[in-house]
Amino acid sequence: MLKERMRELVQHNAYELLLVILLAGSMAFSASLSPYFLTVTTLFDMTSQFMEIGLMSLAMTLVIILGQIDLSVASILALVGVVLGLLNEGGVALGFAIPAVLALATLLGLVNGWLAVTFRLPALVVTLGTMALYRGIGQILLGDRSTYGFPGWFVSIDFRYIPGTPVPLPLVIFATFAVLFYVLLHRTTFGRLVYAVGSNAEACRFSGIAVDRLQVLVFGLSGLMAGIAGLMMTSRFASARWDMANGLELDVITTVVLGGTSIFGGRGTIVGTVLALFVMGTLRYGMGLANVLPQNQSVVIGLLLIVAIFVPEAWRAWRARSRRRAQKGGEARAEVARDSAG
User: Fold this and answer.
1) How many domains, the chain?
2) If you write DSSP's letter for every residue of 246-295 in order, what string do you get?
3) Spatial CB neighbours of 231, under 8 Å, sequence gap ≥ 6
4) Is residue 208 part of a domain?
5) Cβ neighbours for 24, distance < 8 A, ≥ 6 positions apart
6) Digits of tens for pLDDT over the chain (342 positions)?
7) Contact status, residue 61 vs residue 185, Cβ threshold 8 Å
8) Does residue 56 fall inside a structural domain?
9) Which of 141, 157, 315 is nearest to 241 (CA)?
10) Is residue 4 included in any domain, yes or no?
11) Neighbours of 263 (CB within 10 A)
């Protein structure tokens, strides 16, 4: 009985176990480049560099499970930083400015969803347009300069730790949201509706589910998480520019798809996304230790995205064929048994 339960557990979480193996390999690669990598301080401090990707990846998991995509998240992040900086320069207290820019980020996400569902446009096309639009607005507002001069309590979030521990505050924030998203996706009716719509949106419409409203809400949630990531990145750099986080949407999408979320919708887990985030983050950190140029790192991430799309689908196809073969084998044995009994 125990062996059967263990076998079922391994089969059910086989892809997550593969990600754990990939994470161990990434850590071994990074450790081979620097003797200081496998230290508690380094491992924890490293995480602060990719927590913005993690925050956006959590919401992107829901977007892609719906069978949609959001290419504008990095542009929303940058625009949030720009607007926050301008409000700060204008003398607006951050206690008022922060809720305002989070509301703006949510609104921008809702606009993405509204455009996609109202005009029945592919989200890829809509968010490709708003990706350029939102970043362009940031450039118009700020120009080629940076905005800085934030209060001391706001900046350097990556140098703030849980008292008495080496755990940085960005990791705690991400872990908190990861738990919330896990509960939202895997333990609520809302999450079940996300899976259902991603599997068959038309059937859900015929069942009376408000598919369009659900999609708009998920895009709004994606915008909100991009806004929170924008606050975190602005705090880390103690400044903001219109071109911050340029290209980061590629890392976000790669993380989600590498985590096992199907680009065709209907499948995915928060656990897979979190594991893939640390695989990606460790790989990025290792390439940094090896002095790999940023453009070459982008090539590696692009190749990883292609692999991430192919491998999960190939894995699911193999498992489906295995189940069909096992079912046919069982039916054949049952037929032989009936013939023998007869």
Assistant:
1) 1
2) TTHHHHHHHHHHHTT--TTSS---HHHHHHHHHHHHHHHHHHHHTT--HH
3) 80, 81, 84, 98, 101, 102
4) yes
5) none
6) 555 555 555 556 778 888 898 899 889 888 887 787 888 988 999 999 999 999 999 999 999 999 999 999 999 999 999 999 999 999 999 999 999 999 999 999 999 999 999 999 999 999 999 999 999 999 999 999 999 999 999 999 999 999 999 999 999 999 999 999 999 999 999 999 999 999 999 999 999 999 999 999 999 999 999 999 999 999 999 999 999 999 899 899 989 998 989 889 999 999 999 999 999 999 888 888 778 787 787 787 778 777 777 776 676 677 778 777 777 766 666 666 666 665
7) yes
8) yes
9) 141
10) no
11) 17
**Residue matched to tokens 């949106």:** 201
Tell me the residue type at 319: R
Query: Token match 């498992």: residue?
Result: 319
Any idea what the CATH number is for the domain that residue 321 is in? Answer: 1.10.3470
CA 322 to chain CA mean position, Å = 30
Structure tokens at 115: 């455009």
- With respect to residue 1, please indicate whether it lies within any of the assigned structural domains: no
